[in-house]
Specification:
single chain, alpha+beta, Phosphorylase Kinase, domain 1, Aminoglycoside 3'-phosphotransferase, Chain: A, domain 2, 2 domains, 5-stranded antiparallel beta sheet, two-stranded antiparallel sheet, 9 strands
C-alpha cells in the first residue's frame, strides 16, 4: 500500500491509530484490530527540502473491527532530505536516532516529572523518518521567521527553556558523567564532532561548503555597506569565525552543563495563543531535537537570539530577557535541590559572550534560509554557479536582511569579536 521510504507502512498507521484511540477511549486497543480505511497525504514539496527534512501531514481514517465508530488522527512525518549529499550528512549525524532518544527517554521523563508538556508526542521512528503528533490540530502555529520573534514570544520561550535546561543539568549530575555518557552517548559527545556533528571528514567538508556558500551570499549583500578595506576585513574575520564557531559548543570540564536543544530558532518553536486574547501566549512547544547535545546553556540562547530576533528587540530587551531566563533556570535548579551558586550571573554572562561567535556565524547563515531559500538551494546546495546573486530577492527583503546583518556586525564589534583595522 505504501513504500517504506516515502511513507510509513500500513502497520505503522495501525499502531498510531491504536495509540491515539487508546488515549481517547481510556482502554487499550490492539493495533491488529484497527482497520485503515484511508490516509490523506499533504506536503512534501516545499522549497528547501533538498537541505532540510521533507515534511508531510498524514490524516489517518480508521475503524476498529466489530465497532461502528470511525476515527480520524493527524500526524506529521519528517523524512530525510531530497538531496543525496545532505541525506548522507544526516545519516552520519544519526539525526533521527538522536531525536528519537530525546523524545522516548529524556523528554518523556521531563514531562512526567514536571507535569508539563514540552514537545509533541513521538508515535514512530526509524532511520529514515519520524512521526509526531500534529500540534496544528490543537491550534499551535509557527511564527513568520521574516518578522522575527516578538517580546511575549521570547519571554514564553525563555521560561520554558530555563526549566528544560535545569532538568538536563539535574539529569547529568544525578546520573554522573560516565553513566550519562554510556546511556546517552549520541547526545553526550556530539558537540565534540565538529560543526557538522559527525566524525565523517568528507561529510564535514560538504557541510562546511554549504554554510560557507550561505555566508558568502550574506557578505555579498553587505559589500555596498562598507568601504573596500572594511569589507575586506569583514570577510577575513568571518573566515576566522567559520573556523572557530563550532568549538564553543563543546562542554567544558567542571563547567555548568545542560542538555541543549541544539537548533533552537524561530522555525523550531510552536506557539499556542490564548483563546480570549490572541496576543497572549498560552503555551510553547519545541520541535526538531536532532541536534540535541550536552553543552553549555548559552549555546541555545545565542542560537535563538541571533537567528530569530531583530537588532531592535535585542537593543531594547536583551539584558532583561537574559535575566528572565537565568532567574527561571536558577529557580528550577533550586526546586531540584541544586544551589543557585552552581551557575552565578557573572559566569552566565561570560558564557553568553564567549558563545556569541556561534550566534554571529549562524545569523549570517540562516538569514539566507529565511529570506533567500530558493537561491540557497540553487546556488549553494545544487551548485548552479552561473546563477546570478540575488535575483529572487525583493527590495523589501534586501532591506530587512541588511538591517539584520549590519546589526549583527555592530553587536560583534560591541562583543569585540570584530575589530576593523
Amino acid at each position: 500500500m505504501y513504500s517504506d521510504y516515502d511513507h510509513p507502512s500500513e502497520d505503522v498507521f495501525k499502531k498510531i491509530s491504536a495509540l491515539a484511540q487508546t488515549e481517547q477511549i481510556g482502554h487499550p486497543i490492539d493495533p491488529q484490530e484497527v482497520i485503515i480505511n484511508d490516509v490523506d497525504i499533504q506536503g512534501g514539496s516545499a522549497i528547501g527540502e533538498n537541505f532540510t527534512s521533507v515534511l508531510k501531514r498524514f490524516t489517518i481514517h480508521s475503524t476498529v473491527k466489530d465497532a461502528n465508530q470511525a476515527y480520524v488522527h493527524k500526524v506529521v512525518g519528517k523524512f530525510l532530505p531530497l538531496n543525496a549529499s545532505t541525506t548522507k550528512w544526516w545519516k552520519s549525524m544519526r539525526v533521527f536516532d538522536r531525536e528519537a532518544l530525546m523524545y522516548n527517554q529524556i523528554l518523556i521523563n521531563y514531562e512526567n516529572e514536571s507535569k508539563t508538556s514540552f514537545a509533541p508526542r513521538l508515535y514512530h521512528s526509524s532511520d529514515s523518518c519520524i512521526l509526531l503528533e500534529d500540534l496544528s490540530s490543537s491550534g499551535y502555529v509557527l511564527n513568520d521567521a521574516r518578522k522575527g520573534l516578538n517580546l511575549p514570544q521570547m519571554q514564553a520561550i525563555l521560561l520554558k527553556l530555563g526549566s528544560f535546561h535545569a532538568y538536563g543539568h539535574h539529569l547529568i549530575q544525578s546520573m554522573g558523567f560516565e553513566r550519562f555518557h554510556s546511556k546517552f552517548g549520541v547526545i553526550s559527545d556530539v558537540a565534540h564532532h565538529g560543526p557538522a556533528l559527525t566524525k565523517d571528514p568528507k561529510v564535514t567538508l560538504e557541510f562546511r561548503a554549504i554554510f560557507k556558500g550561505m555566508v558568502k551570499l550574506s557578505l555579498k549583500l553587505l559589500e555596498s555597506e562598507y568601504d573596500a578595506q572594511v569589507y575586506q576585513d569583514l570577510c577575513e574575520i568571518m573566515a576566522k569565525v567559520e573556523e572557530d564557531y563550532g568549538a564553543v559548543r563543546k562542554p567544558l570540564d567542571h563547567h555548568f552543563q545542560v542538555i541543549g536543544h541544539g537548533d533552537l530558532w524561530n522555525n523550531n518553536v510552536l506557539f499556542q495563543t490564548d483563546q480570549t486574547d490572541p496576543l497572549v501566549i498560552a503555551d510553547v512547544k519545541f520541535i526538531d531535537f536532532q541536534n540535541s547535545m550536552r553543552t553549555r546553556p548559552t549555546m541555545d540562547l545565542v542560537h535563538l537570539f541571533y537567528q530569530s530576533t531583530t537588532p531592535d528587540l535585542r537593543k531594547d530587551h536583551l539584558n532583561a530577557l537574559l535575566k528572565l531566563y537565568h532567574s527561571e533556570l536558577l529557580l528550577n535548579l533550586e526546586m531540584r535541590g541544586i544551589s543557585p551558586r552552581v551557575y552565578p550571573e557573572e559566569q552566565f554572562h561570560q558564557d553568553f559572550k564567549n558563545c556569541f561567535i556561534h550566534g554571529l556565524y549562524m545569523g549570517f547563515v540562516n538569514i539566507q534560509a529565511i529570506f533567500n531559500a530558493e537561491e540557497v538551494i540553487n546556488k549553494v546546495v545544487l551548485e548552479k554557479e552561473n546563477d546570478p546573486i540575488g535575483p529572487s530577492l525583493t527590495l523589501k527583503a534586501k532591506e530587512v536582511m541588511l538591517q539584520r546583518l549590519t546589526g549583527l556586525v555592530k553587536e560583534a564589534q560591541e562583543f569585540e569579536v570584530i575589530r576593523f583595522k
